[in-house]
Write a structure and sequence with these properties.
The chain has 489 residues and is an alpha/beta fold. It contains 16 helices and 15 strands. The strands form 5 sheets. Strands 4-3-9-10 form a 4-stranded parallel beta sheet, with helices on both faces. A 4-stranded antiparallel beta sheet has the order 5-6-7-8, with helices on one face. The protein binds one RNA strand of 74 nucleotides through helix 6, strand 7, helix 8, helix 11 and helix 13. Monomer.
RNA sequence: GGUCGGUUGGCCGAGUGGCUAGGCAACGGUCUGCAAAACCGUGUACGGCGGUUCGAAUCCGCCACUGACCUCCA
């Protein structure tokens, strides 16, 4: 196939043909969550984006090692006045052990990712489990001369580094601009320059999470874990590093600098960044009160939500936008996605019931080509989905007898449809409503049977009464040629 | 203030210099005792003003609006 996977590389700002470092194998590292709160919608975007990439790379035949970290050392709380660790702060508020908080929210994250049908990564390393590796990186950077110790902390010397290597190449920042934009501030004495960032930080007395080192009892800098863990599991050079656009600067820029300072060369070959999510056109953020947790989406228990949304609706909706575009969540858009996905899934059942004809009046080969071309074009899932809706029309037309399909084409269609809808996009039929015990089902079926009898007797009053009462109770009664079916909304 | 991005029909959301994105909604039809559901069909949109071009939503400039990150913070 001359149609090759192209990936948009943030570093070059271009789409590039993806060629792995080692033939047939791909090393993929993605920045995972900081586990100090419940998993929310913002966590789902990168998870689904790189899950799609992971699935597609495997589908293409690559052996993929996918590393996605858990950040459990914690970053500084955005709105905290003190330089206190997010996780330590939360721990004090909740009167829990830091690792207890970490475990609680890690479990929450895992549970929600499973609901979203996000595959587990190959390795999910924790920052707290790699303190020694991080200290080793600090030593290497110090030995290379790109860091200095100051009052028990170790800082990365950005200006020194920038003399030897380009700094800011990923985010398009120029060091001169950053310097001229820097104000004089108090409390910067420890750093030689405001641009410098900590790679080891001495712990304040109230700071609970701390480890001994030759500089101080402290903790590693927040950019360091990814450098240390990607190197440990994927090597000094690896293929793809992904994460949210919000991490581009300073996090990823710092990662590049740390790896280059420590090893003398670049670590990452392709940088990928997924865009952010907005809610009713507004940025999603905790301070704005619109950071809806995934649990709330799934249960519908949030003031902004009109109803509960199935995890698959969230997943599908994310896939209907390209990963590098912002995506706006609203009840209207979600409900539109919900209906569209139902149609897509229903067509797969219709497809399984199709009978082949001698000849095809439809072109499955072309459809397949278009679907793969879309995926190869920087994972353009919205385009691929558009083509799948063309497949829906084809399927329904065949079922209607307006088109015909050969046995060979039908197999190809099934294979294509199943590959994209289930294997790559990772969609599943929504879970059946709970309380679906057998007696309950039988009772509803009985009511519908009574209605069927009434209809046979042209007793429309009784038939309509049953239907209307069931509707009032929240059931949806659907009459089809093969009889009535129902579901609970 | 700096850097980068966005502005597409009622809503969401793709996109290439000229050739239908797609979904939802809406409307029309098929089906139905009626309805719902399901299925089929229909829509000619691209922030404003200039410019380049035979031709621009797609390229360039300016303006407006908007987003992200940074400018305080490990």
């Amino acid at each position: 196939m001359d149609n090759q996977l192209q990936i948009y590389n943030t570093l070059s700002r271009k789409k590039e043909i993806f060629v792995p470092l080692h033939e047939g194998k791909v090393g993929l590292y993605v920045c995972g969550p900081t586990v100090y709160g419940k998993a929310h919608l913002g966590h789902a975007r990168p998870a689904v984006t790189y899950d799609l990439l992971f699935r597609y790379l495997k589908h293409l035949g690559y052996k993929v090692r996918y590393v996605r970290n858990i950040t459990d050392v914690g970053h500084l709380a955005n709105d905290a006045d003190e330089g206190e660790d997010k996780i330590a702060q939360k721990a004090r508020l909740d009167e829990l052990e830091p690792m207890e908080v970490v475990q609680l929210y890690t479990n929450d994250y895992h549970k929600n990712m499973e609901k979203l049908n996000v595959l587990s990564p190959s390795i999910e390393p924790r920052a707290t489990g790699h303190i020694i590796e991080q200290i080793t990186v600090v030593e290497k950077i110090l030995a290379a001369g790109y860091a200095y110790e100051s009052q028990g902390s170790v800082y990365f010397d950005v200006e020194k580094y920038a003399k030897d290597y380009p700094y800011g190449e990923l985010s398009g920042r120029k060091i001169e601009d950053m310097q001229s934009n820097t104000r004089e501030l108090d409390g910067q004495d420890e750093k030689h320059s405001p641009l410098d960032f900590a790679i080891w930080k001495k712990a304040a007395p109230e700071h609970i999470m701390r480890w001994p080192s030759r500089w101080s009892d402290g903790f590693p800098g927040w950019h360091l874990e990814c450098t240390a863990m990607s190197c440990k599991y994927l090597g000094e050079t690896f293929d793809i590093h992904g994460g949210g656009m919000d991490l581009c600067f300073p996090h990823h820029e710092a990662e590049i600098a740390q790896a280059k300072a420590a090893n003398g060369h670049d670590a990452v070959r392709y940088w990928m960044h997924n865009n952010m999510i907005t809610l009713n056109g507004q940025k999603m953020g905790k301070s704005l009160g619109n950071a809806i947790s995934l649990d709330e989406f799934f249960s519908g228990e949030h003031a902004l939500l009109e109803k509960a949304y199935d995890p698959m609706t969230i997943r599908f909706f994310m896939l209907t936008a390209h990963y590098r575009s912002t995506l706006d969540f609203s009840n209207e858009a979600l409900q539109a996605a919900e209906k569209g996905m139902e149609r897509l899934l229903k067509a797969s059942e219709t497809m399984n019931g199709l009978s082949p004809a001698d000849k095809s009046s439809v072109n499955i080969g072309e459809l397949k080509e278009k679907c793969y071309a879309a995926m190869n074009d920087d994972l353009n899932s919205p385009i691929a989905i558009a083509h799948l809706f063309d497949a829906v029309k084809i399927i329904n037309s065949i079922a209607d007898g307006k088109e015909s399909i050969s046995a060979e084409d039908l197999d190809a269609l099934k294979s294509l449809y199943n590959t994209f809808v289930f294997d790559l996009f990772g969609l599943k039929k929504p879970e059946q409503a709970e309380g679906s015990n057998e007696a309950f089902n039988a009772a509803i079926d009985l009511l519908l049977q009574l209605r069927q009898d009434a209809k046979a007797n042209k007793d429309w009053a009784t038939a309509d009464k049953i239907r209307n009462e069931l509707t009032a109770l929240g059931f949806v009664v659907k009459d089809t040629k093969d009889g009535a079916s129902w579901e609970l909304k």
